[in-house]
Specification:
Layout (H helix, E strand, L loop, with lengths): L2 H10 L3 H23 L1 H9 L17 H19 L2 H51 L2 H4 L4 H19 L1 H23 L1 H21 L3 H24 L1 H6 L3 H55 L4 H42 L20 E10 L4 E11 L3 E6 L5 H8 L7 E6 L2 E2 L5 H6 L1 E4 L10 H5 L8 H10 L3 H4 L19 H15 L3 E5 L7 H15 L3 E5 L11 E6 L2 E6 L1 H7 L2 H10 L2
Parallel strand pairs: 3-8, 3-9, 6-7, 7-8
Antiparallel strand pairs: 1-2, 1-4, 4-5, 9-10
């Protein structure tokens, strides 16, 4: 059995009762499919006047003689009716019997479909939930190598494909095979010769269909990857529309999209051609079998006289009854191939091991007492170390600024403190406890992060700010906005804090977005604040507003400020100057200026900007 099918089993556990009922109703459907065809036999017997007269009620003599008992009982009933009633009543009785059995067969079909629908939709919901949980839990490092569009394609498209394709397996192993088995059983009962003749042709048909299905899984996998690339192009286009337009890059992006969509077209056409061929091919092979049956069966009826006309017509309907499930099996086996390819992509994400998690019995820590100690840490994203034997102590209440050129490792410190990444060597400790021993949620609960990019969501100002304190009152939110120097523009908005700020907060200016990010951190009220280039993307006027907001926020707090603009960190208790992952200078503003080294050079350069 395919490994991905095994991985799906845990998702079906909550829906075991639906699987059980689906199987039961499918068995009953398969049984009544055959019975409904057999009820045509008495109709034909009445029409041809071939009903055998049975005047005494037959006695049931056990399972071995059930066929004879059923035939004798039907003949007895028809004989009883014929004796006292007109032919119309007899015909009405046998027609009513046909209608009843077909109704029961279709009722069981509906009930089986009802239960498989609940199973499919339930598993779809649980798979999506597991995918989303995994997407949120995986570390930031995972997404530095993956396209967002591809993740979206896996979560939406591939999970759907698993739902649509995989559960045809239930039909594949229960409903259709049993329909074939019951029909074949009755066909053997009617004519062993004819049935053996049919069985010679079935493996030949199966072999031809399986040859066509070859390579379908590999092609499906390729198509699903291309679908991920397509969504990525759309997602990147929407995210970078301003840049695309300002650089007149529309033709280039149209070309990228066109190339991707053409590749997808070719793949889906190729897969579709094979899928579409499944039904007509299996039908053609089936009809060929029936045609040969007509010839051979006709000889048995007309020449050998070993088969009567009514039995032969019923036999043919049973043979046709095999065709539909055989077609369904060939079609389902094709869609299972697509499902296997989709499941491979879904479980590729679900099976990723999250390296950054809380240890078992991790320490809960809700207060910050003395210091943060970074000791002899080495860290690399890929091959080259970004931080080399780096050590730093940040005491409670201090504002420590990290400065240096781009690529010196400043933002990496923020990533390591929040455990977005883990150090390769060395330790980071809070109050003497290694952060890897702390519960991840309680560690991040101690910290507020304001990044260079103001990450806001398509929701109200209130919802964006209360992210770290969901039960915050309106008054608390307004107070946080005042500290962040943001209430002066929020109060003038149409609905105040209940105003929707649009996708990524695009209804606001850069400075306004950044002040809302600061308000979010203020409301969370953590003891440690990390400001990662919080003002570098702003114009001078916005920077002044944000700078006041930052100073308000940093009062009586431990702050680590990563700064590009040195004007924003002159009041810091300690300024750490970094170069290529190492500390080259350390001290306050005056001490570093007096050193006349790297810091002084940076200040001089920026004063001319």
């Amino acid at each position: 059995m395919d490994a991905n099918i095994k991985k799906l089993f845990p998702f079906t556990k909550p829906y075991q009762s639906h699987i059980t009922w689906n199987v039961i109703y499918n068995i009953l459907y398969a049984l009544f499919s055959t019975i409904s065809m057999l009820t045509l036999f008495p109709v034909l017997q009445v029409l041809f006047g071939k009903t055998e007269k049975v005047l005494a009620q037959p006695v049931y003599a056990g399972i071995g003689s059930i066929k004879e008992y059923v035939i004798d009982y039907l003949n007895y009933k028809i004989s009883s009716l014929s004796a006292g009633e007109s032919t119309e009543i007899v015909l009405l009785f046998v027609v009513a019997m046909v209608i009843t059995t077909f109704f029961i067969k279709n009722l069981f079909n509906y009930l089986a479909s009802y239960h498989i629908m609940h199973l499919k939709n339930g598993v779809l919901k649980d798979l999506r939930q597991s995918m989303y949980d995994k997407i949120i839990e995986l570390p930031i490092s995972y997404y530095s190598e993956k396209r967002k569009g591809d993740m979206m394609a896996r979560m939406l498209g591939d999970v759907n494909e698993v739902q649509n394709s995989f559960f045809s397996i239930l039909e594949l192993v229960v409903k259709e095979p049993l329909t074939i088995i019951f029909a074949l059983g009755m066909m053997f009962a009617i004519s062993t010769k004819l049935t053996l003749f049919v069985l010679i042709f079935m493996p030949i048909s199966g072999y031809i269909i399986s040859k066509l299905a070859k390579n379908l899984r590999a092609q499906s996998l390729e198509a699903q990857k291309e679908s991920g690339s397509l969504i990525s192009v759309v997602e990147e286009t929407l995210g970078g529309l301003k840049v695309i337009k300002s650089y007149n890059a529309e033709p280039s992006f149209k070309s990228r999209f066109n190339d991707s969509v053409t590749r997808l077209l070719n793949l889906t056409n190729s897969i579709g051609s094979r899928n579409n061929l499944a039904t007509p091919l299996s039908e053609f092979l089936g009809v060929t079998t029936i045609a040969i049956l007509l010839f051979y069966g006709g000889l048995l009826v007309l020449n050998d006289k070993t088969l009567d006309g009514a039995s032969f017509i019923v036999y043919l309907t049973l043979a046709f009854n095999i065709l539909t499930p055989a077609k369904a099996i060939s079609k389902a086996s094709y869609s299972v191939k697509n499902g296997l390819a989709a499941a491979e992509r879904v479980f590729e994400v679900l099976d990723v091991k999250n390296e950054i998690t809380s240890k078992e019995n991790a320490i809960q820590k809700n207060t910050f007492e003395s210091d943060i100690t970074i000791k002899n840490i080495n860290f690399k994203y890929e091959d080259e170390n970004v931080l080399k034997n780096f050590s730093l102590q940040v005491k409670k209440g201090q504002t420590v600024a990290l400065v240096g050129q781009s690529g010196s490792g400043k933002s990496t410190i923020a990533n390591l403190l929040t455990r977005f990444y883990d150090v390769n060597e060395g330790t980071i400790a809070i109050d003497g406890t290694n952060i890897q021993d702390l519960d991840l949620q309680s560690l991040r609960g101690l910290m507020g992060l304001v990044t260079q990019d103001s990450i806001l969501f398509n929701d109200t100002i209130k919802a964006n700010i209360s992210l770290g304190k969901l039960n915050a009152t309106d008054d608390e939110i307004i107070e946080a906005l005042k500290i962040a120097n943001a209430y002066e523009f929020v109060k003038d908005l149409p609905k105040g804090i209940h105003t929707n700020i649009g996708d990524s907060g695009n209804k606001l200016s850069g400075g306004q977005k950044q002040r809302l990010s600061i308000a979010r951190a203020v409301l969370k009220n953590p003891p440690i604040m990390i400001l990662d280039e919080a003002t570098s993307a702003l114009d001078t006027e916005s920077e002044k507003f944000v700078q006041i907001a930052l100073e308000n926020m940093m009062q009586n707090r431990t702050s680590i400020v990563i700064a590009h603009r040195l004007s924003t960190i002159q009041k810091a208790d300690v300024i750490v100057v970094m170069q290529k992952g190492k500390i080259v200078e350390q001290g306050n503003h005056e001490e570093l200026i007096a050193l006349n080294g790297v810091y002084n050079k940076l200040v001089t350069l920026q004063s001319f900007e």
